[in-house]
Amino acid sequence: MSSDIVNLSRRRFIAGSATLGGALVLGFHLDPRSRAQAAPEAAPSVQLNAFLTIAADGAITVYVKHSEMGQGVLTSIPMIIAEELDADWSRVTALPGDARPEFAHAQWGIQATGGSTSTYTSFEQMRKVGATARAMLLQAAAARSKLDAKDLRTEGGAVIGPETGQRWTYGELAGDAAKLTPPTDIALKERKDFKLIGKRQHRLDGRAKVTGSAGFGIDVRVPGMLYARVLHAPVFGATLKSFDDKRATAIKGVRHVVQIHSGVAVVGDHWWAAKQGVDAIDAQWELGDHASFSSESQRQEMGKLLKGDGASAKAVGDVAAAMAEAKDPIEAEYDFPYLSHAPMEPMNATAEVREDGVTVWAPTQFQTFDQMAAARVAGVTPDKVVLHTTLLGGGFGRRATPSSDFVSEAVAIAKAVKAPVQLLWAREDDIKGGYYRPRTRVTAKLALDADKRPAALRVKIANQSIMLGTPFAPDLKEGGVDPSQVEGLDNWPYAVPNLSVSYHMAKAAVPVLWWRSVGHSFSAYVKETLIDEAAVAAGVDPIDYRIELLKAHPREVALLQKLKEVSNWGKATEGRHQGVAIHESFGSLVGHVVEISLTGGELKMHKLTSVVDCGSVVNPDTVKAQIMGGGLMGLSAALGEAITFKDGKVVQSNFTDYPILSIAKAPAVEVHILESGAKMGGVGEPGTPPAAPALANAIAAASGKRLRDLPLDLASLKA
Amino acid sequence: MKLNINGRDHEVDAPDDMPLLWVLRDLVGLTGTKYGCGVAQCGSCTVQLDGVPMRSCSLPVVGVAGRKIVTIEGLADGDTLHAVQQAWLDLDVVQCGYCQSGQIMSAAALLASNAKPSDADIDTAMAGNLCRCATYPRIRAAIHAAAAKLGEGSAQS
Question: Are A23 and A125 spatial neighbours (Cβ–Cβ below 8 Å)?
Answer without folding.
Answer: yes
